[in-house]
Write a structure and sequence with these properties.
Blueprint: H1 21-28, E1 32-36, E2 39-42, H2 44-63, E3 67-68, E4 74-76, H3 77-83, H4 85-89, E5 94-97, E6 103-106, H5 111-121, E7 130-139, E8 154-164, H6 167-187, E9 193-196, E10 206-213, E11 219-223, E12 230-232, E13 255-258, H7 265-272, E14 280-287, E15 290-297, H8 304-311, E16 316-318, H9 321-328, E17 344-348, E18 360-363, E19 369-374, E20 384-386, E21 405-419, H10 421-425, E22 429-431, E23 437-439, E24 441-448, H11 449-459, E25 461-462, E26 465-466, E27 477-481, H12 487-502, E28 507-510, H13 516-526, E29 530-534, H14 536-540, E30 543-548, E31 554-558, H15 562-570
Helix pairs in contact: 1-11, 2-6, 2-11
Amino acid sequence: MRYSKTFIPTVKEDPTDAEAISHKLMVRAGLVRKLMAGAYSYLPLGVKVLKRVEAIVREEMDDTGALEMLMPALQPAKLWHETGRYDLIGDELIKFIDRTGREMVIAPTHEEVVTGIAGKNMRSYKDLPKTVYQIQTKLRDEPRPRFGVIRSKEFIMKDAYSFDRNNAGLDKSYKIMLGCYKRIFASCGLDVILVEADTGFMGGSESTEFMVLSKSGEDIVVVCDSCGYKSSLVKASCQQELNTWSGKSKAPEAKEVDTPGVTTIEKVAEFLKCQPECMIKTLIYIANEKPVAVLVRGDHEVNEAKLAAKLNAKKLVLADEDMILKITGGPLGFSGPCGLKGIDIIADYAIIPATAATSYVTGANKKNKHLKNIVPGRDFNVKMTSDIRYITQSEPCSKCGKPVSLKRAIEIGHVFKLGTKYSACMKAKFLDSDGKEKPLIMGCYGIGLNRIIAAAIEQNNDKDGIIWPVNIAPYSVLILALNINDKKVANESEKLYKHLLDDGVEVLFDDRDISPGIKFKDADLIGIPLQVVIGSKSIQKSIAEIKIRKTGKRTEYPLNKLLSTIQKLLA
C-alpha cells in the first residue's frame, strides 16, 4: 500500500481524555477515532491489525476442530428471563421494545441462543462432542467506559461453546481450549498469565482468566512469587485465622461514645484515635430477599462474590437507608453487630480475635453513637464465620503463607466450565447411549479481540510509539523514500516495493513528498517491525538502511541484498 493512497491520520499530541498508553497511541497512530464514550471507529490501519488478530484466532480455533457460525445480536428478552440472567446482569443489558410490543435485548453474550440451537439440533450422543464459535460485535451499556477500547460499550468478541455428553468430555474440551488460547496469545506476541477466576454472571463450576499485566489494567490479579499461586482478586482466598478467641476477655466493658456526624471508617478512626484494623465494619445486605449483617474489619472490603457463594444467594444487594433503619434501629453509617435481633450475622475470619485482649470499635445502631471495647463472642454472637473479603497487598498467601502481590492487569480471555447451568433450565437435552435423556454439558470460551490490540500496545511501546509484534503488525515492512523527487530513490524504492508485493509481504511504501523528519516520526509512531530507509546519499553508495523497530538497531546493506535480507529477517 502506498502511504499517499491510504488514510493514516497521525497526531503529535496525546488526546486529553486518554489515560492508558494504548488509548493514547491508538489515537495518535491513526488506528481509531472516538465517536462517543465507549464507541470507536477503526480506521484503515486499525482494521488491518484487527484482521491479523482475527486470522490468528480463526486459524487456531479451526485447528482444534471448532466450527465457525454467526448468531444474531438481537435477541428476544424471554430467553434471558428463561435463564434468569435478565435481572442478574442488570442495567448493562441493553433492552428495548420493538414495534410489535415485544421486549428485546442486544446481547453482550450468546449462551441462551447457542443453547437453544444445540438443544434442538444435537439430539443424540452421536452428535457429540461439538464446539462452535463466532466472531461478532457485542454491546453493553457500560456505566464507566474508559481506557479506550479496553472498557467500551461496543467490542469485538470471539466466543466459543462446547457441548459434551459428560463431565469427562467437558474436561477434555476445556483443556483443548486452554491450549488453543495459549497459542493464540503467544502468536499475538503477548506475555500472559493464567489465573483462577470467579464465574460471575456466566455461572458454572470453574473458570480461568488470561491476563496481561499492565498499569492501565482495569482488573487486579493476586500473585505469589514463592509458590506460583495466581488468582483474580475476586477469587483469591484469604488465609484463615488459626487462633480463635478463648472466651475470656481482658478487654474493658463495652462503652458508648459520641461521634457526631462521623460515619465513615476513616473519619471514625481519626475522631477516636484508633486504627481502621481495630474497627468492625457492619454492612446490611439483602440475600435472597432476607437481610443479613456482614462484618469485616475496618481496613478490609466485602467481597460480594464470596459472600453470595457462601450464602448461596442468587441475588445479593446492599440494603437501602430505610431498610437499615428498620433492621438496626439506627441510621446509615452507625450500624453495628451489638443488639441486632431477627437477623443472622456472618463475620469474616479476620475479625476473630487472636488474643483475649483484642477488642473493636463498632457502630452503636444509634445516630451519632459508636461503641468501644467490643469483643466478638462476649458482646455479640455470629452465626457463621467465613472468608468473605478481598485479599490485600503483602498478606500471607493462602497456599504457602508467603506475602502476595497485587498487580493491575487486562483480561483478554476467559474460559468457563458451565456444566448444565443453561441446558437444564432451557431443556437442551440429548439421548444418551443408555436410552435416557440428559442435559448437554457445556463450556464457554471468550476472547476480546479489541483488548488483544490494546494489550499488545501496552506491552510493546516506547517513547516514540508502538512496537508491533510481527504477527499482528498492520504491515511487516515500511519503505521510507526520503526524497521521492530523486529519480534514483524513487526507482529503487518502487523496485523493492514491487518485489515485496510479489513475495506476498505486507508492505507500506511511504511515497509522500514531505520532510524526512516527519517520515521518521510517523514510522516510529505506527510501529511497523522493519523500516527500510532509502535516501539520496545512500543511493550514491548503492546501499540502504534497515532499522528493526523493536531493538532500534540500524544496519546498512547493499541494494542488491535488500530483498534477501528482508526475507531472512521476516522468516
